[in-house]
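Proteins fold reproducibly. Look at a concrete instance:
___
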Amino acid sequence: MPLETFRYTKGVVIVHGKSELALVRYIHTNLHLPIKTISRKGGRTSIQICGLNDFLKKKQFQSLSAFANEYSVEFDKKNKRLVDFKLFIIMDMDDCDESMQKKYMSKELFNGHPLKEYMIPIYNIRNLEDVLLKAGIMAEKIPDSKKGTYYNRIFPINKKPMTVDTVNQIRFFAAKLKGIHQTNMLRFVEYCFGLICEDLWEEEGHAEKIS
């Protein structure tokens, strides 16, 4: 499968907590993508929608050039634009009211921020665990004390070379999410497949189970 040698980071993902962090790492390591994750204390402390604006006031988010330098993103100095880049934000929806949820999903929440045009808000209603249960990826709710171990097991990091099997692992995950209206996580998965010039739904029937 064709795969260019990436010189720059093509995606940065701000994650709500440790489960989202495990999921994103599972996807980008299986596809060997130049994607970086941003979490608070390794996901042990959550980032919430109502606190995003304060979080995005940190020095590295205050300008395109500062962000590009911090995360190795290609920056067109002449046109003052990030090149071939998306900033995904993956959040649960159960920790804010309906008004805030709508502002997040429409990106109104980020009005005036220099990175707004690159942002893609990803939502899970009410939360990622509910989405995974509905999709049949999780069989039952997991106690908070066991979530770290559990998510690391069903979403393992791949340190081996990319193969058809590792790609199909992500296709299988995506197929499980297809038709689940409580999330738009497929936007992130589709972007990832676009980076490796692969059809997301090709050979999905040959994928192996992830749990």
